[in-house]
Amino acid sequence: MKALSYSSMPGSGFLGGLTYGHWLEEDLALTITVGAMALEAETRVTVSGTSAHAAAVGSFLLGLRHYFSSSTGRSPVRPYLGGGVGIYRGSQDDVISGTTVLATSRQETAFGGRLAVGSDFLLSRHFLTGLAAGYNLMTDFEAPIGGSRNYGGPEMSLDLSYLFGSGAADE
Question: What residue ranges do the domains of the chain occupy?
Answer without folding.
Answer: 5-164
